[in-house]
């Protein structure tokens, strides 16, 4: 029986944006934390960021100064002096190690192989990968049954969603113990199967991809598409604004990775518009230019606030999102409850997509998708068999 408690020492390898947040979260929840990085300056930056976050919590009276110091003192940094397995020797007491190093299968596999040599046999080894196969990473370990994905969202101290992703060989008790621990940490864990993009990064693809198609077809400009999704759909940001915020390099990489990993499923096909933006280095806010120009003095384009056009844009994108959510359920990637939780907490959608489908009527979504498929003759628009069956039988995803 595997159980994780406050007494479990947590190792975090990789002290970048994610690793530092995960270390802070674990320490806040009472764990002794060992934070590693191959780069000493990354460790310094991580501890400075954690100290700043804790100081802010003290200022806002969320915690006392003593409590903040206690949390800080639970974290120790190590392992950067030498390369290889010896660097991680302190991890022998850890019950859980969470890896948050660079997104490279080769580098992650090398790390998991070296962790095996130092970590206790019953420890759980987790990866925070966003796009790689958990099963492929686990294969590098001699204990693949104790390896799984614990996928946090950025920043991990703020966003409560965590995707728990067992690989093909992961034991049920490891999945259950990890899920319980995340609940104890005040997170909202959902369980996803080891499939490209897990839940959020898979289902969210049409929010960007269909918006780009609508733009490429000249149906509307970017400002109008953003306006429609916010004003009519109730989304916090429009697709183009959001891509510029995330970074077009990051968003394009996620799109390509899901497309490649699904063996070129047409629903996930990337667009040339995004490719060219990427080629130009127009990565969004961080480079001053993306879909929009953020240079000082440049005014943002005005949307065409035609409600009929806005409805068309919103319903087309929403139908594609619902189709992805339904297909994820159909393919048993996650439960209906976890799919809706993931999209509302992970990407702040105003409603769960399956609950939204119920509200609008499943036959209505099938009608939209079938009309698109008839018109374009593309596989991209094929309605999920689950939606078709549910529409025919008059079923809903949730009972009212
Ligand atoms: N940034 C996000 O929004 C986000 C969200 C969810 C998941 N992730 C995933 O989390 C992981 C880390 O992402 P990040 O954004 O924190 O990256 P980052 O670049 O900010 O940090 C990665 C850190 O890992 C260190 N590192 C690299 N190779 C190492 C090794 N072999 N041993 C020890 N340390 C090593 C680097 O020095 C760096 O400090 C990736 O797998 C990424 O896909 C990122």
How would you explain this protein's 3D organization?
The chain is an alpha/beta fold and 400 residues long. The protein folds into two domains: 9-191, 3-Layer(aba) Sandwich (Rossmann fold), CATH 3.40.50.720; 202-393, Orthogonal Bundle (N-(1-d-carboxylethyl)-l-norvaline Dehydrogenase, domain 2), CATH 1.10.1040.50. 50% of the residues lie in helices and 10% in strands. The protein has 17 helices and eight strands. The protein has helices spanning 17-28, 40-59, 65-73, 105-118, 134-138, 172-184, 200-203, 205-216, 222-232, 239-246, 248-261, 272-280, 307-330, 336-346, 353-360, 362-376, 385-393; strands at 9-13, 33-36, 75-78, 94-99, 124-127, 147-152, 161-166, 188-191. An eight-stranded mixed beta sheet has the order 3-2-1-4-5-6-7-8, sandwiched between helices. Helix 1 packs across helix 2. It is globular and about 60 Å long. The two termini are 38 Å apart. The model has no long low-confidence stretch (mean pLDDT 95).
Provide a short characterization of the protein structure:
The protein is built from 17 helices and 8 strands. The protein has 400 residues and is an alpha/beta fold.
SSE arrangement:
Elements: E1 9-13, H1 17-28, E2 33-36, H2 40-59, H3 65-73, E3 75-78, E4 94-99, H4 105-118, E5 124-127, H5 134-138, E6 147-152, E7 161-166, H6 172-184, E8 188-191, H7 200-203, H8 205-216, H9 222-232, H10 239-246, H11 248-261, H12 272-280, H13 307-330, H14 336-346, H15 353-360, H16 362-376, H17 385-393
Could you describe the largest sheet, including whether it forms a barrel? 8 strands, mixed
Going across the major beta sheet, what is the strand order? 3-2-1-4-5-6-7-8
| The level-1 CATH class of the largest domain | Mainly Alpha
Order of helix and strand elements from N to C terminus = EHEHHEEHEHEEHEHHHHHHHHHHH
Number of helices: 17
- CATH architecture tag of the largest domain: Orthogonal Bundle
Radius of gyration: 22 Å
Which structural class is indicated by helix and strand composition? alpha/beta
The oligomeric state is single chain
- Summed up, the domain count is 2
Flag low-confidence runs.
none
CATH topology of the largest domain: N-(1-d-carboxylethyl)-l-norvaline Dehydrogenase, domain 2
Strand content: 5-15%
Small molecules in complex: nicotinamide-adenine-dinucleotide
Helix content: 40-55%
């Amino acid at each position: 029986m595997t159980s994780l408690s406050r007494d479990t020492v947590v190792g975090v390898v990789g002290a970048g944006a994610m690793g530092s947040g995960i270390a802070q979260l674990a320490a806040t929840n009472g764990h002794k934390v060992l934070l590693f990085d191959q780069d000493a300056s990354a460790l310094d930056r991580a501890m400075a960021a954690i100290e700043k976050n804790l100081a802010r919590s003290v200022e806002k009276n969320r915690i006392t100064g003593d409590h903040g110091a206690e949390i800080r003192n639970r974290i120790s940094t190590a392992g950067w002096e030498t390369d290889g397995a010896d660097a991680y020797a302190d991890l022998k007491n850890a019950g859980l190690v969470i890896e948050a190093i660079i997104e490279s299968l080769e580098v992650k596999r090398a790390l998991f192989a070296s962790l095996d040599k130092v970590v206790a046999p019953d420890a759980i080894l987790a990866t925070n990968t966003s796009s790689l196969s958990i099963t492929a990473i686990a294969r590098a370990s001699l204990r693949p049954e104790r390896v799984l994905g614990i996928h946090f969202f950025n920043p991990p101290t703020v966003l409560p969603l965590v995707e728990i992703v067992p690989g093909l060989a992961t034991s049920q008790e490891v999945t259950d113990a990890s899920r319980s621990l995340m609940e104890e940490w005040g997170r909202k864990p959902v369980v996803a199967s080891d499939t490209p993009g897990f839940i959020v990064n898979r289902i969210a693809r049409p929010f960007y991809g269909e918006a780009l198609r609508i733009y490429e077809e000249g149906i509307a400009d970017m400002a109008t598409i953003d306006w429609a999704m916010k004003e009519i759909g109730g989304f916090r940001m429009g697709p183009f604004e959001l891509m510029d915020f995330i970074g077009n390099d990051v968003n394009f990489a996620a799109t390509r990775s899901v497309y490649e990993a699904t063996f070129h499923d047409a629903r996930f096909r990337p667009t040339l518009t995004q490719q060219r933006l990427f080629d130009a280095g127009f990565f969004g806010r961080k480079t001053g230019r993306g879909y929009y120009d953020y240079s000082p003095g440049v005014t943002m384009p005005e949307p065409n606030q035609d409600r009929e056009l806005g409805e068309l844009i919103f319903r087309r994108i929403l139908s594609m999102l619902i189709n992805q959510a339904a297909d994820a359920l159909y393919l048993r990637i996650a439960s209906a409850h976890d799919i809706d939780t993931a999209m509302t907490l992970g990407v702040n959608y105003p409603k769960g997509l399956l609950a939204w489908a119920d509200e609008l009527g499943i036959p209505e979504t099938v009608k939209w998708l079938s009309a698109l498929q008839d018109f374009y003759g593309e596989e991209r628009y094929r309605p999920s068999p689950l939606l078709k069956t549910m529409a025919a039988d008059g079923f809903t995803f949730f009972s009212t």
